[in-house]
Structure to design on (451 residues):
């Protein structure tokens, strides 16, 4: 178990938005300075609390995108239609604003850098966020543990972290990235458009005989489908960790 | 109250349902599980109660279905912040299932197909507070939501309502379950917002 997953009491902390980076037309990364942040394990999330002037408040959970570190963390937030909190975070929040949060939360969906086991990451849409934290944590640790990200998106313009993933997967240190395009592929690309298939998941080096650790994150239907494909392909269900959100679960 | 978030207005306040602190209302039924969904056939399903002295009571699907069932309507509160109100279920009360058990245990550990566990005081399973439910909204419970049968303890956060429930162990000593070992509150009362350790 990752060290940061062992929690003490979780108190609300006030961070300050340091910087905002637009990732796609509907998603942005919020960099927050949180003095005294205890650190986190890759894959964990935080609760964010917004409070209106009349005292009304709303809370939601967001996965941490950044590698474990102190005093600064990054959340990538996808704007949802009718998202009470996500619309504030993506449309209203600006650098310098305070942001109240507590965490890190979750001791299950976390990557353990000491395990050294090949790791298959399967992302649907913005489910890539906690998996990106794992990819970044691996790089920060100088690990060469084989990692493979299978990332299902509607279309190329919805890919989060596209440039960074391209750069990291070309570094030759054991990270592979494969995309699945469910609506439209990049122009000229020789890939078929459609859902995740057993063939995509069973790439050489990533079959059940290779016994990778598996993390799947995305909308419920996607996670159900991906987990079922892997179980049918013979992967041990006990090594498959999932995190589901929506239609209005974890990430509204 | 937290610090004010500049420019945050939130959803309209009028006519809002009374919800536990920090929760918001949904009308769909989100699914949150830690691993792949187990596919449990009713032909091989068994529910087992084991007391602290090792006394065992078991029901196969037919025997379980022959028990008196109740239809009930309850509100659900998930620790991930969503609440769903007035959901309709059919299931067997734990009062019925525990009626024959000779026990002085104070704690219970629910076990599920797939390996999930969750703990709670035995008192929270009694007096019409908990069921093993097998129908949701008038239909057989789907695997995603814990079918063929799940525990339902609606006065606690929903992770206590173990999906794919396989049995309950009665224990003299409390033993943390899956999420309770991973940072989530040991008891989980939504009205006291007991989400995490120390809440």
């Amino acid at each position: 178990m990752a060290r940061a997953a062992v929690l003490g009491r979780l108190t609300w902390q006030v961070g300050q938005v340091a910087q905002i980076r637009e990732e796609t037309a509907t998603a942005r990364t919020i960099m927050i300075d949180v003095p005294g942040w205890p650190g986190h394990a890759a894959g964990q999330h935080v609760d964010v609390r917004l409070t209106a002037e009349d005292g009304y408040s709303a809370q939601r959970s967001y996965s941490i995108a950044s590698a474990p570190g102190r005093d600064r963390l990054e959340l990538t937030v996808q704007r949802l239609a009718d998202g009470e909190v996500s619309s504030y975070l993506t449309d209203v929040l600006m650098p310098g604003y305070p942001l109240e949060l507590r965490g890190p939360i979750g001791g299950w969906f976390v990557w353990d850098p000491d395990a050294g086991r090949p790791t298959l990451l399967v992302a649907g849409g913005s489910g890539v966020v906690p998996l990106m934290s794992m990819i970044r944590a691996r790089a920060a640790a100088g690990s060469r543990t084989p990692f493979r990200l299978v990332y299902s998106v509607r279309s190329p313009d919805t890919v989060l972290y596209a440039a960074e993933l391209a750069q990291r997967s070309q570094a030759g240190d054991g990270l592979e990235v494969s995309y699945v395009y469910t609506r439209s592929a990049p122009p000229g690309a020789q890939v078929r458009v459609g859902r995740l298939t057993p063939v995509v998941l069973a790439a050489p080096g990533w079959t059940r005989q290779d016994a990778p650790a598996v993390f799947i994150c995305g909308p419920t239907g996607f996670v159900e489908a991906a987990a079922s494909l892997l179980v049918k392909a013979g992967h041990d269900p006990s090594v498959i960790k999932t995190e589901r959100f929506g239609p209005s679960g974890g990430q509204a | 109250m937290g610090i004010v978030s500049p420019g945050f207005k939130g959803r309209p306040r009028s006519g809002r349902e009374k919800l536990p602190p920090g929760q918001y209302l949904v009308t769909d039924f989100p699914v949150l599980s830690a691993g792949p969904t187990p596919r449990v056939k009713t032909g091989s399903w068994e529910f087992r109660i084991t007391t602290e002295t090792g006394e065992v009571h078991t029901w196969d699907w037919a025997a379980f279905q022959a028990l008196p069932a109740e239809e009930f309507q309850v509100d659900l509160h998930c620790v991930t912040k969503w609440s769903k109100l007035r959901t309709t279920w059919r299931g067997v009360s734990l009062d019925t299932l525990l009626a024959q058990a000779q026990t002085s245990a104070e704690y219970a550990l629910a076990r599920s197909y797939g390996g999930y566990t969750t703990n709670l005081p035995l008192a929270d399973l009694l007096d019409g507070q908990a069921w093993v439910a097998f129908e949701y909204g008038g239909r057989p419970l789907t695997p995603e939501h814990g079918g063929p049968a799940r525990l339902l303890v609606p006065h606690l956060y929903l992770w206590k309502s173990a999906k794919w429930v396989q049995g309950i162990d009665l224990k003299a000593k409390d033993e943390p379950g899956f999420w309770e070992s991973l940072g989530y509150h040991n008891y989980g009362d939504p009205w006291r917002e007991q989400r995490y350790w120390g809440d």
User: Anything to note?
Assistant: The mean pLDDT of chain A is 92. Chain A has two domains: 3-105, 119-245.
